[in-house]
């Protein structure tokens, strides 16, 4: 039965009301990460929070781990029935629906950059009079950097998936396809498998060359770290950032490596890094075999890698690029929740970084990290209203 009434949120006449927060289950297939972990949940409880946790067999952390630190377990996917004053925290976007959203949601919503279906998502908040604090836009007011991000583990896992896809291509006379990916027990297990797989590349791993764009950021540094730990020579890891891309693409240098990993944060239109026509023009001289788009802005109209149009999945990690019948195969890894390949480590790091912000949740009416995020939400809400009006949808 769902929590109801303030009594279950821990209030009494003698104590200060406890701040409730509700960790919902994740409905995205194969998503094993968690916005809160037993470690961070315990810290919240020790600081006058009441933590409700939905039972979730998909989550990397067992229900019993949360229960052991004092969380209150509630049924799976029960959050729509939670008291409206209880903030709901999760990671990935909610399943598609037209149901109004009256709660406060803390999550990645992927609807602020006019991605596919963005207005539909925001319409649910408008109709339900709820609030969205998008995790992507919770920023430190001084540094303007996100308070928490999965970037490092996204880059690390993306580089691993790209390396495994490259190795798979060498099988069956160049027709090999990377089979399903599954979460690793830990980082060491991932690195060991990647290192062994690259040894099967013609000439061994010393003959593999990679390019990471966005190498100075969290995501890019993760990709570079994986390639180093897997044993690639430093000279074979080409690291680009804003200075190198300032000249504008398409870039020949991308065609000259085996694996290209895109780790940029796209905030405005930029010249394309690579196109299908550019790939075809290179003909047999092209070395590029695998593209990993960690940024995964598939539906963004300004996507700088318009050589694919679907998100791939763990069961089917790659999609073929149309090379116009010229040159060898090229595949793209475009999984939009790569860090779940290292779910426990990625969750612990993210939740630890997010913790100070969650601890300030009772002061969200005055704390800049929250007030700025709410201001942005209201701005996007208005943009969505205007878009609906333009399309004949009543506001």
UniProtKB/TrEMBL annotation:
Residue numbers annotated as active site: 92, 110
The record's Pfam families line, in alphabetical order, gives: AlaDh_PNT_N
Every copy of the Alanine dehydrogenase/pyridine nucleotide transhydrogenase NAD(H)-binding domain together lies at 198-334
What chemistry does it catalyse, as a reaction equation? Answer: L-saccharopine + NAD(+) + H2O = L-lysine + 2-oxoglutarate + NADH + H(+)
Q: Which cysteines are joined by disulfide bonds?
A: 219-263
Key word Disulfide bond present: yes
* Any one of the GO BP annotations: lysine biosynthetic process via aminoadipic acid
| Residue numbers spanned by region Disordered | 1-20
GO CC terms of this entry: cytoplasm
Going by the record, the broad EC class of this enzyme is: oxidoreductase
Which EC number(s) does UniProt give?
A: 1.5.1.7
Matching SMART domains, A to Z?
AlaDh_PNT_C, AlaDh_PNT_N
**Compositional bias segments (type: Polar residues):** 9-18
Question: What is its pathway?
Answer: Amino-acid biosynthesis; L-lysine biosynthesis via AAA pathway; L-lysine from L-alpha-aminoadipate (fungal route): step 3/3
Q: Per UniProt, which keywords does this protein have?
A: Amino-acid biosynthesis, Disulfide bond, Lysine biosynthesis, NAD, Oxidoreductase
- Residue positions annotated to bind NAD(+) are 145, 217-218, 241, 245, 265, 294, 335-338
- List the molecular function annotations (GO) for this entry: saccharopine dehydrogenase (NAD+, L-lysine-forming) activity
Can you give the residue ranges of the Alanine dehydrogenase/pyridine nucleotide transhydrogenase N-terminal domain? Answer: 22-157
What family is it from? Belongs to the AlaDH/PNT family.
The record describes its quaternary structure and partners as: Monomer.
Q: Which PANTHER family match?
A: SACCHAROPINE DEHYDROGENASE, SACCHAROPINE DEHYDROGENASE [NAD(+), L-LYSINE-FORMING]
Q: What's the protein name?
A: Saccharopine dehydrogenase [NAD(+), L-lysine-forming]
Q: Which organism is it from?
A: Kwoniella pini CBS 10737
